[in-house]
Structure to design on (276 residues):
């Protein structure tokens, strides 16, 4: 008798795996080896994880650096040359400031193309008028200190915010990143390792036009489907941090406009896919 916890595993058709190899740079001919390559990759896919491997769904900078779909992070990542290269490229891309990078929803460390930032902000961002209601007191203290100087190292920001407990401070930083208010501006290694933090709107100003939630969900779903070719049950939610309900709303909106077709509950495919 099958276990109650057994779940249906959706096999991807070979043409979809080939399509993802091309779009997500999971092949040696298109692997990434420069910050410029990273920026082009992020613009192409719209959003991508940084250091996930083949055990997690979605595009990944680490997999694109490896140039193979079956890449798996070793236990000791410090000694892995591909993981080290990914980390160094991440540092350079942060410093260049041309794509959005932060720890977003549910702790996902992601790159987001500038064209997708407005849609992400609608779903996860906290507006300035809502900060006192939605942000914790430590997060408000950190943000107040950062807005005075606009860019600060971790230790200076901690001192100026008056938060003496390191864990409380880091939780506040993570909260501000998830709210799309604060981003790392640079990584320094000398004289000691630290991040420089800045207000996100300084690098990525808010759009003046109003975007409603349904539009944001649809465009995030479209962006993922463009790169994936096909999405199976729960995949969009796992990659982005959306609830399954909202991921479904986004995908069904694409079906309504003829951009995608629903093959089964939770399984969607682009209606037109160019062959790799």
């Amino acid at each position: 008798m099958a276990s109650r916890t057994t779940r249906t595993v959706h096999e991807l058709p070979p043409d979809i795996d080939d399509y993802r190899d091309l779009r997500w740079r999971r092949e040696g001919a298109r692997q990434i080896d420069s910050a410029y390559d990273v920026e082009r990759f992020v613009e192409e896919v719209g959003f991508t994880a940084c250091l996930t491997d083949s055990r997690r769904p979605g595009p990944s900078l680490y997999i694109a650096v490896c140039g193979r779909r079956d890449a798996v992070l070793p236990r000791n990542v410090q000694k892995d040359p591909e993981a080290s290269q990914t980390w160094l490229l991440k540092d350079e891309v942060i410093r260049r400031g041309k794509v959005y990078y932060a720890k977003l929803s549910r702790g996902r460390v992601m790159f987001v193309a500038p064209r997708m930032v407005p849609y992400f902000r609608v779903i996860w961002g906290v507006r300035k008028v809502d900060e006192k209601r939605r942000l914790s007191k430590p997060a408000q203290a950190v943000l107040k200190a950062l807005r005075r100087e606009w860019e600060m190292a971790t230790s200076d920001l901690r001192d100026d915010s008056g938060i003496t407990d390191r864990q409380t401070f880091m939780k506040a930083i993570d909260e501000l990143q998830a709210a799309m208010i604060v981003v790392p501006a640079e990584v320094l290694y000398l004289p000691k390792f630290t991040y420089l933090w800045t207000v996100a709107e300084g690098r990525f100003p808010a759009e003046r036009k109003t975007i409603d939630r349904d539009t944001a969900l649809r465009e995030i779903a479209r962006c993922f489907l463009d790169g994936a070719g096909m999405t199976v049950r729960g995949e969009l939610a796992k990659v982005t941090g959306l609830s399954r309900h909202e991921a479904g709303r986004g995908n069904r909106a694409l079906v309504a406009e003829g951009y995608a077709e629903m093959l089964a509950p939770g399984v969607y495919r682009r209606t037109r896919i160019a062959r790799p």
Summary: DSSP finds 13 helices and nine strands in the chain. The two ends are 42 Å apart (CA to CA).
